[in-house]
From TrEMBL, chain A:
Major localization class: membrane
Name of the protein: Small basic protein
Source species of the chain: Lysinibacillus piscis
Subcellular location: Cell membrane
Family listed: Belongs to the sbp family.
Topology in the lipid bilayer: Multi-pass membrane protein
Keywords, in A-Z order: Cell membrane, Membrane, Transmembrane, Transmembrane helix
Gene name of the encoded protein: sbp
From TrEMBL, chain B:
Sorted UniProt keywords: Coiled coil, Membrane, Transmembrane, Transmembrane helix
Gene: ylxW
Any coiled-coil regions, as ranges: 54-88
Top-level taxon: Bacteria
Lineage: Bacteria, Bacillati, Bacillota, Bacilli, Bacillales
Residues spanning the membrane: 21-37
UniProt family annotation: Belongs to the UPF0749 family.
Record-given protein name: UPF0749 protein YlxW
Length: 123, 241
């Protein structure tokens, strides 16, 4: 249960400690990659909560989304069109949807628990 | 949750699923941390550079404004000075003109310039031989006569004077040397032709005064002839030691 969180913290620490500077041209790619990663992560959590989690889908989605987003941004730079906005838009919408679903599921569970408690207390 | 249960049920510490999840989480964490770092560094650098730039520009502006103030003060001071100069210049202009004229006159007097212009010519001749007079000194021209004449001419405003064509300047000397007179080392016999540039009317009038120079000279048996000349030319003095 805590291993992914430990991994997240480890990655965070690693990212904070690395002091490599990337050119400002590629900062767009980075932001899109972060968005894609977050989207996939929350998607995974949602799938887990909805009992439809598949680790293959999760991992492949993670890397494929990142690559797709980066590729789109790359193409956008070369075509002179802000294509990365599409990726940002898509990932943003999905991020909000995922989080909303997670929130509802958690609220439902909380309600169920309370009902159970009430039932037990009444009994 | 279920996954964890399942994996733990399988018994291995690090199942494939967990490993994948770990990798994904590490990657996500790394990216977030890295971008945070990046954003922080750029933000801080941008902020500091902007701030420093603003500060430096402000300081520059202050320096420039101070300099402007100094310069404008200098300008007003200089303008004041100029006005003062102009006022004094206006006051002194006439004086300067007079000084210029004086300088011209001085040069003429020194013989540095060629004297040229209207003037008079006075010829002093020895008196005719008079056997009744015992002393020939009584009827020849002495240097004192020449002095008198020169003095009178100078008083009357002669600007340049020559004797027998030799220019008389400020430091000229005239000596009696027997029958001749020596002017600046050059001997001149009678008759003496004295030319003077100046207002000929004034010069003539001053020479012809009753009891004036010509009267005195004539009294001393000297033949004086005076003529006005419209155009006298006097040579420059060769600067001799």
């Amino acid at each position: 249960m805590w291993l992914p969180f430990l991994g997240l913290l480890f990655g965070l620490a690693l990212g904070l400690l690395t002091n490599i500077q990337i050119p400002s041209v590629y900062e767009n790619y980075l932001s899109i990659a972060v968005l894609a990663a977050l989207d996939t992560l929350f998607g995974g959590i949602r799938a887990q909560l909805q009992h439809v989690y598949d680790d293959k889908v999760f991992v492949s989605g993670f890397f494929f989304n990142i690559l797709l987003a980066a590729g789109l941004a790359f193409l956008g730079v070369y075509l002179g069109i802000d294509l990365y906005l599409a990726a940002i838009f898509a990932f943003g919408v999905r991020l909000f949807q995922n989080i909303a679903i997670i929130r509802r599921i958690l609220l439902n569970r909380l309600d169920e628990k309370r009902h159970k408690k009430n039932k037990t207390s009444i009994e | 949750m279920k996954m964890n249960k399942r994996t733990s049920n399988k018994g291995s510490f690090l199942s494939r699923k967990q490993f994948e999840l770990l990798i994904v989480c590490i990657a996500t964490g790394f990216m977030i941390g890295y971008s945070y770092n990046q954003a922080k560094s750029t933000r801080s650098t941008v902020d500091t550079t902007l701030f420093e730039k603003e500060e430096s520009y402000r300081e520059e502006l202050i320096v420039q404004q101070e300099r402007n103030k100094e310069l404008s003060e200098e300008v007003t001071a200089l303008q004041k000075k100029i006005r003062k100069y102009e006022k004094s210049f206006v006051a002194n202009e006439k004086e300067y003109e007079k000084l210029g004229e004086d300088a011209e006159n001085m040069r003429l007097l020194l013989g540095e310039l060629k004297g040229e212009g209207k003037g008079i010519r006075v010829t002093l001749r020895d008196g005719d031989y008079n056997p009744t007079a015992a002393n020939p000194n009584d009827y020849i021209v002495h240097e004192s006569h020449v002095f008198k004449l020169l003095n009178e001419l100078k008083i009357a405003g002669a600007q340049a004077i020559t004797i027998n064509g030799q220019r008389i300047v400020a430091n000229s000397y005239i000596r009696c040397n027997g029958p001749v007179i020596t002017i600046d080392g050059t001997q001149h016999p009678a008759p003496f032709v004295i030319e003077a540039v100046g207002e000929s009317a004034t010069l003539t009038a001053s020479l012809n005064m009753d009891g004036g120079v010509i009267d005195q000279l004539v009294n001393e048996n000297i033949v004086v002839s005076l003529e006005e000349n419209q155009h006298l030319i006097m040579p420059k003095v060769n600067m001799k030691s």
